[in-house]
Amino acid sequence: MLHAVIMAGGSGTRFWPVSRRARPKQFLSPFGGDPLVRTTADRIAPLVPRERIWIVTAAATGQLAREIFPDVPPSNILVEPAGRDTAACAGYAAAMIHLTDPDAVCLVLPADHVIPDAEALCSALAAGAEHVAEAGGLLTFGIRPLRPETGYGYLKTGPLVTVRDGHEIHLLERFVEKPDTPAAERYVASGGYLWNSGIFAWRAQTLLNEISRQLPLLAEGLATIQEATGTPRAAQVLEDVYPTLPKISVDYGIMEGARQAWTVPVGFAWSDVGSWAALPEVVAADAAGNVTRGRAALLDAEGNIVVSEGPVIAAAGVSGLIIVATSDAVLVIPTTEHQRVKEIVAHLGEAGWDDVL
């Protein structure tokens, strides 16, 4: 039985001011159409029916997730009382899924990625899921790099193990943190590295076993939550225990030390759309390299990203800017400084301006 876990608990601060605490990036429709989290679920519909979709989200967005997914069982929408990073998120989902299906194979996907070719994605996911169902271990999907990107983590591929439905399955040698430019250039030139997509496949039991071996405090907390599930004290136990779980990512906390780890290289178009600067990857630019959404009037302007949720934005003689306007806030920042949006959000919080957060 194949299940899918969609991780939708992120704060999305790098997409402020459009992204807010009550409606972070994954619940928005920044490129038109459905919210990103819904699009993620729709992409894998050929593989996983709605009754085996699981959404893990934050307390502030639990009700919003239920509204977006009326066709997902309410018990499958798991609300984290506190953000404890992806190891706790994936482990919590695995613990709940294991209660209903001890033999479950799980796909785990971020809620806010853009992958236009759903057929290619499903083909790769099916191959990876079949492999872990038969061989065990933990598997991640790696994107064949198009350029020496410094904004992504990398995967070092090991020997080829098998080919399944046209998809190579390699041993995963190691994870590599976001590199500087010379290192990224070496990785791409070598042909032995992939971008880390953050998409995984494993048996629920296998993940729980690895958590028990590598993160015993997390395992203990998850077991306490699992034991209380279905009892009158379930909500209180979750509220008490979850915020105490170790805060660590799946990559560093579990995958790096896994007894068996695999990777499937994939070549489909993919973007994690991690900041406003990534918008040109998914929205076509005009002849001057400007990407616009909403009402924008640009004169003698080049290479700008301009987004309006209402007000007209007019600019002349500017280049390399990100300009985003909502009804109550405006962001102006050079594209080269796009990562500092998180700093801006933190500064606003320190100033007590929670009404715009």
Describe the protein in words.
The protein has two domains: 2-266, Spore Coat Polysaccharide Biosynthesis Protein SpsA, Chain A (Alpha-Beta Complex), CATH 3.90.550; 277-356, no CATH class. It is 29% helix and 26% strand. The model has no long low-confidence stretch (mean pLDDT 95). The chain contains ten helices and 15 strands. The chain has helices spanning 36-43, 62-68, 85-100, 118-135, 181-190, 204-214, 216-228, 234-241, 250-253, 341-350, and strands spanning 2-8, 53-58, 77-80, 105-110, 138-143, 154-164, 167-176, 193-203, 261-266, 291-293, 296-299, 305-308, 313-316, 321-325, 330-334. Helix 3 packs across helix 6 (204-214), helix 3 packs across helix 7 and helix 6 crosses helix 7. The longest helix has 18 residues, at 118-135. The chain is globular and about 60 Å long. The strands form three sheets. It has a five-stranded mixed barrel. It has 357 residues and is α/β, with parallel strands linked by helices.
